[in-house]
Amino acid sequence: MTQYLPILALFIVAALFAGLSFMASGLLAPYRPTDAKSAPYECGIVPDREPAERFPVRFYLVAMLFIIFDIEIIFLYPWAVIFKETASPMFLLVEMLTFAATVFVAFIYLISHGALDWGPLKRLRPMAPISPARTSESTVRRISPVARDEAA
Questions:
Q1: Domains of the chain, residue spans
Q2: Contact of 83 with 89, CB cutoff 8 Å
Q3: Which residue from 94, 68, 73, 70 is spatially nearest to 83, judged by alpha carbons?
Q4: Model's pTM, two decimal places?
Q5: Whose CA, among 41, 91, 124, 151, lies 20 to 30 Å from 132?
Q6: How do residues 88-141 score in pLDDT, each as one tens digit?
Q7: Strand locations in the chain, DSSP E?
Q8: CA-to-CA distance for 22 and 24, rounded, in angstroms?
Q9: Tens of pLDDT along 127-137?
């Protein structure tokens, strides 16, 4: 237990430093709000509308997708390094397949909730029935070469 005493002391000192820093900045910092300081700053452009209050759900879904695949890649590198060096590579293979299946299920969940559908919603209109009598001969007006020359 005495071997962990320096680590515990370091955590206590770090927590005290963080707490005292927040308290000191709150007590010693000048507080003089003005309209210019309170206004949002967008590269010198005066905002003409209020910022959006909430991010769309798709943003969070894409963030979850990124984190899931990031964790999988981070897990894959050490697994690949120790795969052949272990006494039971079959256990590691089953472990990796289980993890990959879990990630795949999460990916399917995100795709089914529209995580990658960023464009406008596609609304398909039913196609009007085309009469069999309609052909290019009956719908395109043909202009004779003589009429074309007169129009020009």
A1: 16-45+54-112
A2: yes
A3: 94
A4: 0.39
A5: 124
A6: 888 888 888 898 898 888 888 878 877 777 666 566 666 666 666 666 666 666
A7: none
A8: 6
A9: 666 666 666 66
Q: Rounded distance, CA 33 to CA 141, Å?
A: 73
φ, ψ of residue 67 in degrees (nearest 5): -65, -40
Separation of alpha carbons 81 and 76, rounded Å: 9
Q: What is the mean pLDDT of the chain?
A: 78
- Give CB contacts under 8 A, 24+ apart, made by 73-79: 75/99
SS3 (DSSP) at 88: coil
CA atoms within 13 A on the CB side of 34: 3
User: How far apart are alpha carbons 28 and 26 in whole angstroms?
Assistant: 6
Strand, coil or helix: what is 103? Answer: helix
Please choose, from the candidates 110, 28, 132, the residue with its C-alpha nearest in 3D space to the C-alpha of residue 65: 110
Angle between helices 57-82 and 89-112 (to 10 degrees): 170
CA neighbor of 66 nearest in space, from 74, 76, 56, 78: 74
Could you count the other beta carbons within 10 Å of the beta carbon of residue 77? 8
**Dist. CA 109–CA 103, nearest whole Å:** 10
